[in-house]
Design brief:
41% of the residues lie in helices and 33% in strands. The chain contains 5 helices and 5 strands; from the N terminus they run ββαβαβααβα. Strands 1-2-3-4-5 form a 5-stranded mixed beta sheet. Strand 1 (8-15) and strand 2 form a beta hairpin. Helix 1 (32-44) runs parallel beside helix 2 (62-77). The radius of gyration is 13 Å and the shape is globular.
Length: 115
């Protein structure tokens, strides 16, 4: 597989009035459109809570960050909630550097989002 086609897996689960989208692999400019499409599909059903699970991500670039910030803004505008399950250290570092960990609804695991 060429390096520009970084592997990313998306796994969507319905869970008690919430939808959890688990990402694993690498979220970057080459595959962000797939993630945006899936988030749009989820948003079309207007769930009260969307949980973006980043625990399986090995890497995320600024494109992924922008995608999450946009999804959060749409959720707030529509009176819904977007919770982000913290990823591994390499991913969390980006949130800390940009101080977005202070602005976004960050949780340690999916059950904390629905509690």
């Amino acid at each position: 597989m060429p390096p520009d086609m970084a592997l990313l897996e998306l796994d969507t689960h319905q869970e008690e009035g919430a939808v959890r989208l688990a990402l694993s692999g690498e979220l970057d400019i080459s595959n962000a459109p797939r993630v945006e499409e899936e988030i749009s599909r989820i948003e079309a059903d207007a769930p009260a809570l969307v949980v973006l699970d980043l625990r399986g991500l090995a890497f995320m670039d600024s494109t992924g960050l922008r995608l999450i910030v946009s999804a959060d803004a749409r959720a707030r505008e529509q009176g819904r909630r977007l919770a982000v399950v913290k990823g591994p250290e390499a991913v969390q570092r980006i949130f800390r550097l940009t101080r977005l960990d202070e602005r976004l609804d960050m949780v340690d695991d999916p059950t904390a989002a629905t509690a």
